[in-house]
Amino acid sequence: MENTDLTFKTSKKTALPGEAHLSKRLFRLAELISPCRRIVDIGCDHGRLDLYMLLSGNAERALMTDLHEGPCRRAREMIRRYDLENRAELLCCNGLGERQLEAGDRLVIAGLGGLEISSILSRLSFPEDFSAVFQPNWNQAALRTHLASRGWSFEEEILEDRGWFYLFIRLLSPSKPRELSLIEAEIGPCWLKRGEKQFTETERAYFRRQRRLFQMKARKYPEFTSVARKLAELPAML
Q1: Closest Cα partner for 190 from 139, 152, 136?
Q2: How far apart are CA 204 and CA 111, in angstroms?
Q3: How many angstroms separate the CA atoms of 169 and 231, rounded?
Q4: pLDDT digits 0-9 by tens, 51-60
């Protein structure tokens, strides 16, 4: 169960320092994980999402990690600049290193590939009071397959930001582990159940693009022909 004694306290128009101003993509991530006791941001990069969450009052603490020294250095400088050392912890490591999630954490992993996210998740244990949002930039099928195999149900949404489409996957609740078919993994079981009137224009544009991509992929890998055909049959395509 999620904590209910915190509220989402800010909006895009809240007066925050320039470094805390978020793109549509990052702001949507903030909305999906707010409010929380601690944001756990794996692959934090510049750390702007965490800065926003802390300064806006939507997170009490932050655990930030990144594999590369450059992003860690920039995030560390930012933490010092805003005097957040007592609220933000930064680790330069793969995933969470030797650490584990705690009850009440809100995990976010954004901008990595589905295989990378799955590898990180395979080394973590999940407490009961916990939620997570993932924004894989590629290999989304690998992440869906991993989540289903670990027994998680999830929902998805699409956001367009400056001409790019971003897929968000949010964990919902434990379920029974299961295997996804190729079509379920590549398209997403959530979308296969949607009716025509439930698709937004952004989602329709995204799946039109996905259909073209799978049509091209099927020329080299015939097994994807069925995926391209199923995409053409989605209510979003009608």
Answers
A1: 152
A2: 22
A3: 19
A4: 999 999 999 9
